[in-house]
């Protein structure tokens, strides 16, 4: 019995996944640790039964036509599927796999790290030390605003926004404001208050944006948006 042939578009994927595929399938791998060029993808995908791809690989009509009718599954190591032509895949009855939720904790943790690094000016201070700017201790040198007793606004309280808010509980935050189409029951865990975007921008010391980039959200933040908060405000997109 012939084993399925699977194209893996990057060599630098977790070894556990690669070994699992090799046990059951004949594996074809793009050997360079960089996105596979479209021309190479079109060439290698012929007579392939499955694709293991990343968000850097656009799987569209042209690719599916080049693959042929034997292609049965496209699995993407990504949370989103913007790079996949879902209509074209559905039309061909090709199964789609992806990894929703797998990066929720990691993204929330990195958001908190970025929040602390910028508010407490860690990157600036590190650079200043290396460049010889630090001479002696000063009570106000590189003394950025703290999170304690601050108001934090979260634009879009989905999986990541909720996890960020839960992580912030231990920092003695005064208030967490959020925007969402609906009141989130999970917000009761951290005292979150649903408000309109204008109010969130006006009241927040820090703003964290966790909504997806779509035609509706593109350019949501612009010069007029930033004018709605006259005090110092840090904005983070995760």
TrEMBL record:
**PROSITE patterns the record matches:** D_2_HYDROXYACID_DH_1
Where do the D-isomer specific 2-hydroxyacid dehydrogenase NAD-binding domain residues begin and end? 112-231
Q: Does the keyword Oxidoreductase apply?
A: yes
Q: Name one GO cellular component term.
A: cytosol
**Keywords, in A-Z order:** Oxidoreductase, Pyruvate
GO MF, one term, reads: hydroxypyruvate reductase (NADH) activity
* Protein name in the entry: Glyoxylate reductase/hydroxypyruvate reductase
Task: Name its species.
Answer: Apis cerana (Indian honeybee)
């Amino acid at each position: 019995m012939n084993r399925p042939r699977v194209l893996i578009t990057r060599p630098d994927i977790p070894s556990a996944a690669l070994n699992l595929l090799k046990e059951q399938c004949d594996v074809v791998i793009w050997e360079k640790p960089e996105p596979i060029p479209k021309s190479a993808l079109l060439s290698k995908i012929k007579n392939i039964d499955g694709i293991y791809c990343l968000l850097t690989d656009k799987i569209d009509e042209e690719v599916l036509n080049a693959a042929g009718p034997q292609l049965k599954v496209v699995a993407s190591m990504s949370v989103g599927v913007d790079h996949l032509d879902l209509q074209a895949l559905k039309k061909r009855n090709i199964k789609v796999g992806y990894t929703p939720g797998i990066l929720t904790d990691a993204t929330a943790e990195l958001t908190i790290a970025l929040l602390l690094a910028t508010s407490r000016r860690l990157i600036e201070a590190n650079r200043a030390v290396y460049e010889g700017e630090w001479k002696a201790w000063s009570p106000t040198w590189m003394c950025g605003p703290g999170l304690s007793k601050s108001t934090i606004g979260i634009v879009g309280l989905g999986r990541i926004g909720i996890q960020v808010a839960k992580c912030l509980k231990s920092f003695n935050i005064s208030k967490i404001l959020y925007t969402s189409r609906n009141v989130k029951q999970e917000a009761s865990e951290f005292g979150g208050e649903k408000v309109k975007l204008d109010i969130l921008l006006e009241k927040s010391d820090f703003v964290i944006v966790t909504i997806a980039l779509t035609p509706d959200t593109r350019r949501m933040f612009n010069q007029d948006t930033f004018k709605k908060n006259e005090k110092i405000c840090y904005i983070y997109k995760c």
